[in-house]
């Protein structure tokens, strides 16, 4: 039996597969068609919807009546629903079916058994079908009617010869009389006396066919009106003129009207154009006549169906070229055949050429702290999704859902071409701007130029090289590949172009240079390549693997004195490095000390001196070693070389030493005398002012705990027995975070998926109370874009805080998963501009709510925003961000950890946190969204970022960043805090781009926001928090406080990094009659 699978498959099981068990999602192929009996009684089919009720049936137990008067695409739809019927136990009645031209959709019908009959006599009853022209193609079909008669009446287009042929095939000849097959009402409007037309010539090209056929002279010359040519693609020679046709307009045949020639002696003909190369077409011609003869018999002419194949043409480009390198001298290239071979593919022409390294790589000083080394890598593996190995598991796989024939390959080809063409434009035309600018202390700007993508292509994924389709290259008898220019001293024209012919869809290229980039062109050639040429080229850039020893410095390092406290180290360059040498590193140390120093030497500095000059060295014995760094990475260190620096006693006159030795005791005595006088005067002053001589020490018993800090259960308390723990989500600062189920927490009798924050089993009583008080911060919040607190379990151990479950994790991890090269990519494309604006609006709405509640976040970043199952972004976290993203924080001067890369200039200078500083952090979050969570100020240390931001530096515009998003960033990064917008102003500027759901759920459109707007307008200053000394330690913006962390005003403020104590006074905003907001 056949039905739709309700699990993973949403398609219909093919008839060659049996009905699977209810618990299975796999199909097992069986022999032939699996029978499906359908008991219908008497079933009337009057539409395609009614026909679908019998889909898959092979035996109809009962009677079948066809009464189809209208419909779209009837022939194919009816064949899909009724095409498997083999036996009808009762009768088949076809009446008033004006939409039918043929009964060929019942292609498997073999028996009409006649257990019940129409009027007790007729097993097949065909009445009043105005457009029915064919019953079945009797050359490929057989039908048996063992009992009963046939009845045909009022079928004006059904010729009697078709009915008589059916009598012979079904074995019913002689059962019917003339009244049951009436010659006056059947075929009276059809051209049943048809003359056979013959084609006399045809000439084919790749996209057209020239046809001529013999002249036709009807009995009355003036009866001839025109000819109609029917043609369609036909891979197999098994079509008839009625297949795919119905009377309501659906027709699988293409139709061309042809006027008869004016010259009666001229043979009629036509040119069929816009055809596909190397494609077989089925063609026939029909003469259209208007009979005026008195015998009321229509005469016509029609040819038989002929099959003609067009000529071949150049193929389309090979698809999905990928490459890998399995050694330092080999590249393996693989591709897929062209989507349109336009002939029989006989071989592929492969051309490859070495590319020169970009000369701009020589210009940069890679010892500069703000400049990152180029990260070129060899291609080491193929995509795993290459189609291999699928046949092995063919018996255990989900049933594939098929799209309409011909649509899926065309759609996939269009999407693939668009992607490749866009990649080609980016790689060949666009030269990106430097990523950001680094300003040193002396205000000298250094721009980091990126290598030109048109001269040095590095694959975006380690181990993959993606193809780009070139459009201008067309191969004729000779091949002239397009070359990408290079600005290096040795241009690509100096490199020889190699070629090879291969018959498979892969090749291995050998004898290549190690860690060198090559351009590889693939052309597809069919059997007519000598006349039509090969396809345009698909090309790919690939790099061989590095040679492990190629970057080692040959020979030994030498040294020579170069003056006072200076020495010149010399060494030879690697003779044949991996790519090119970018820099050298010297590691040296003084033998009497354990400290090792590392000096970076740019290649430019090395070429000037043939080495490097070490200066400002202290006297003593030293050892040093050198290594080179190329495009592939670091080479090996050389052997240690030892040298020495002479001391001042050995170089200067001994008189100076004796003078210094005489003065030192005098200076020491004067210092001791001054110190004694100062101590005496200081003690005398304290005694005269009445200060006690001793020191007072105040202490507090650590075992005492303030009752104001005790947690008191309230209406948020949830019984422990209603909580079920499912699995671990991660480690928080207080303890583990789990996913669980909470019963009756939102609706009575229902279970809700939640996140459960726990406290460590070894935690002290103080830490448990701090953990529960932290949850109290969330009780004051009721906003769709702030993570909700759902309840607290404070009775028993361990204590639990029940939070809204954000299944997609934090925004930073989610954005990184959307990168094309991410291993945990959920199959989603990178966010569009609308998606980015939606994320920004949801974050701004949550921050606007906190601002209205007079809270300052102080640690707004992508890591502290969470993403729900429906992709909504909310403010908040599970207390895990500090543990996961510890490197995002920086400890300044031994104080609290600070997120310096997200902090505003005034927060870095003065420790001032307010709404304006949150706006600055929001701009950095926008930058993270645009870059899919890259680290801000990448390549700079935390100390450099601190100075850079305080010197009025800001982040550069990310590559391919939409202008609208960048304008929001720059608006948030105004140096004057009062010139920055509020979150409400940001939402006002982007509200037209937000979704309809945002208007329903957001705080921005809520009545509470409208009530609070007048109060906020008058409150020009938000709460400010000045971090200094111990307060900065307490206000450290860690989303999850470490155990034993200090508490500001006796209450934890670290759940959201907020700058106000909500437990001392929990404000409730409400609208007063005068329009103001009361607290």
From TrEMBL:
Please report the stretch or stretches of sequence annotated as the Fibronectin type-III domain. 193-313, 317-422, 553-648
Q: Which CDD domains match?
A: FN3, PTKc_InsR_like
Any one Gene Ontology cellular component term annotated for this protein: axon
Recorded hits in InterPro entries, A to Z, give: FN3_dom (IPR003961), FN3_sf (IPR036116), Ig-like_fold (IPR013783), Kinase-like_dom_sf (IPR011009), Prot_kinase_dom (IPR000719), Protein_kinase_ATP_BS (IPR017441), Rcpt_L-dom (IPR000494), Rcpt_L-dom_sf (IPR036941)
Keywords, alphabetical: ATP-binding, Disulfide bond, Glycoprotein, Kinase, Membrane, Nucleotide-binding, Phosphoprotein, Receptor, Repeat, Signal, Transferase, Transmembrane, Transmembrane helix, Tyrosine-protein kinase
Q: Which Gene3D superfamilies match?
A: Immunoglobulins, Phosphorylase Kinase, domain 1, Receptor L-domain, Transferase(Phosphotransferase) domain 1
Q: What class of enzyme is it?
A: transferase
Q: A GO molecular-function term, please?
A: insulin receptor activity
Task: Return the Acidic residues bias intervals.
Answer: 385-395
Give the chief site where it resides. Answer: membrane
Instruction: Report if keyword ATP-binding is assigned.
Output: yes
The subcellular location is: Membrane
Q: Where does ATP bind?
A: 757
Q: Where is the composition biased (Polar residues)?
A: 479-489
Query: Where, by residue number, does the polypeptide cross the bilayer?
Result: 657-682
Q: What is its EC number?
A: 2.7.10.1
UniProt topology in membrane: Single-pass type I membrane protein
**Top-level taxon of origin:** Eukaryota
Matching SMART domains:
FN3 (SM00060), TyrKc (SM00219)
According to the entry, every stretch annotated as the Protein kinase domain falls at 723-1004
Q: Which reaction does it catalyse?
A: L-tyrosyl-[protein] + ATP = O-phospho-L-tyrosyl-[protein] + ADP + H(+)
Q: Where is this region: Disordered?
A: 377-405, 469-491, 1028-1051
Which PANTHER family does the annotation name?
INSULIN RECEPTOR-RELATED PROTEIN, TYROSINE-PROTEIN KINASE RECEPTOR
Entry similarity comment: Belongs to the protein kinase superfamily. Tyr protein kinase family. Insulin receptor subfamily.
Listed name of the protein: Tyrosine-protein kinase receptor
